[in-house]
Amino acid sequence: MTTPVTDALQDFVARYQSAAQQAGQPLSTEYDSAWPSPCYQGSGAEGEQVRWQPTPQAGNLSFHNVEEALSISLNPQYCEFFTSFYSDNLTAKAEQGACELLQVWNEQDFERLQQNLIGHLLMKQRLKQAPTLFFAVTDEEDFILTVDNASGAVMLEQVGKPPQQQVADDLASFIRTLEPLIQS
Fold first, then answer.
1. C-alpha–C-alpha distance, residues 127 and 125, integer Å
2. What is the CATH classification number for the domain harbouring 51?
3. Which residues contact 53 (CB under 8 A, 6 or more apart)?
4. pTM given for the model
């Protein structure tokens, strides 16, 4: 089943792969046999550069354990964002500047994301701030992009502080505005 978020992310991934190809910079990363991923396009010697590509997930990842542990319902678009693809992080240019869309490389990476999200949500609770859900880092130190859990709006937020600025009405709209930023 496709949703606005999965459609927008799928389109961005296609544009990202195309931009890398046009730049003559195939997507590659150091091979790590201890960190397997369906993204690897072959194998290599430990530490050798190998090609990778974003790979659709089979639909087996879920945030239900986080929701149960914290007695919270997570914004569905946020959950769709992290359960659509296995991928390395994706760099992009937004209207406000450069950002890096966080992604999960494998199931263990998804577990690590969940642990970090729990830590983030507990910090928000302790600071008596509304829950936000991080999905990207920016080129500004300590600034992240989050989804407001209640409204679904994309927000610019300094870590530990309430969101400062609404960037988009929803995650799909934000992703559609991004331009791939291929690192040389």
1. 5
2. 3.40.1580.20
3. 17, 27, 39, 41
4. 0.94
The structural domain count of the chain equals 1
pLDDT digits (tens, 9 = 90+) for 149-172: 999 999 999 999 999 999 999 999
How far, in Å, are 14, 54, 80, 132 from residue 11 at the CA level?
Answer: 5, 12, 14, 25
Side chain identity, residue 178 = L
Domain that holds residue 85: 4-180
4-31: string of b/e by CB count within 10 Å (b at 16+)?
Answer: ebbebbbebbeebbeebeeeeeebeeeb
